[in-house]
Write the structure tokens for this entry.
Amino acid sequence: MAKTALVTGATGLLGRQVVQALNRADWAVVGTGFSRANPPTILKANLSEAAQISSILSEVNPAVVVHCAANRYPDQCDLDPEGARRLNVEATKHLAEETSKAGIFLIYISTDYVFPGKPGKAPYESDAEPEPTNLYGQTKLDGEKAILAATKETNLGVVLRVPVLYGKADAAKESAVNVLMDALWKSQEKGAQVKVDDWAQRYPTNTEDVARVCVDISLKYLESREDLDKMPKILQFSSEDRMTKYEICQTFAEIMGLPIDGVVADNAGNDSNSSVQRPYDTHLSTKTLKDIGIDVRTQDFKAWWRWEMKAFRK
């Protein structure tokens, strides 16, 4: 009989790929969504309601839950801090408590933004001291603490930190990387001057790669069920492609054969008056994943985008 998995946030940028990866690995997969729910494969759920979490877990009875649902936009978190905390922390806490009681293994998707990213400090190992620079990072760190506390006795929970993601998107705005292709096209308009950050170091990672790692972690930890107390509780995955957003635009311009004159490199860094302070370099070490035998190779950024945009060179 096929193993069953539940994916929260299954209609989102990462969740869609996790569902596909599990399906390809012959899992029976059920997802949750809210505005884009599509029963019976994508159940409508408000994860802020503890009773709904319990009901769905009872209905689906999964072996694994991959918790992708989150408010992952730093600016939105600052605009609605209570809503961000409800989803990123409280819903995660309820989910972890319920999965732990039911003997279900839980993967919590977290972020590199739990780290301060000060110059010269990266890469960060999984046991490095977190120190978020903004509310989004703090809520995700609090979510990490909630899952690890709730699963302390059962060892049925792990944190998987990932950096900025790109991949197949329903809309470019789903990804802070994909949206830069729109910025490049906007810069082609007459007189356009599109300002793009050229300060923060980013490590864009493909959602298909993260999804594959989620499947590999699920299998590894289920196979190690008798020794879960010896398995690491915090894992990290990232590409090694280091680029600023401006350098990503440069790559896109090369792929598309477009001039980049209308894109203006912004080297100023954080605005000290802004409520959202972004870290400089939060590169994640993947050593812990490698230590347990998980493949950490990633797709080539430029090659993926050439294929995606059908921009082949003769």
User: Anything to note?
Assistant: The first helix runs from residue 13 to 24. DSSP finds ten helices and eleven strands in the chain.
